[in-house]
Write a structure and sequence with these properties.
102 residues, alpha/beta
């Protein structure tokens, strides 16, 4: 049986490595990319069961833009937006954009 695939999107390699190891230990197949463009390419070619995306990928990219683009593709899977920021406004915006969790 194939393990469910979770795509981790974060510009910090250490965070990607940690989350992938944790997901693998829990029985998932974890894939990771470092930016928005790579995430969208991945989703264009394959459909993960879930995506975990950092809110602040780089000065030019953010997780909410990735979330919006993924939602317009017609592919349906949960997206979790991750951030060290605890602001209520960002959490509400992520939920309004269609994030499953923040």
């Amino acid at each position: 049986m194939d393990r469910p695939c979770v795509l981790v999107v974060d510009d910090n390699g250490g965070v990607r490595e940690f989350l992938c190891a944790l997901l693998e230990r829990e029985g998932y197949r974890a894939e990771s990319v470092g930016g928005a463009r790579e995430a969208l390419e991945f989703c264009g070619n394959r459909r993960p069961e879930m995506m975990m995306v950092d809110l602040h990928l780089s000065p030019e990219e953010n997780g909410l833009a990735v979330l919006r683009r993924v939602k317009t593709t017609g592919k349906s899977f949960p997206v979790v937006v991750m951030s060290a920021s605890t602001g209520r406004k960002l959490r509400l915006q992520a939920k309004e954009e269609g994030a499953e969790s923040y």
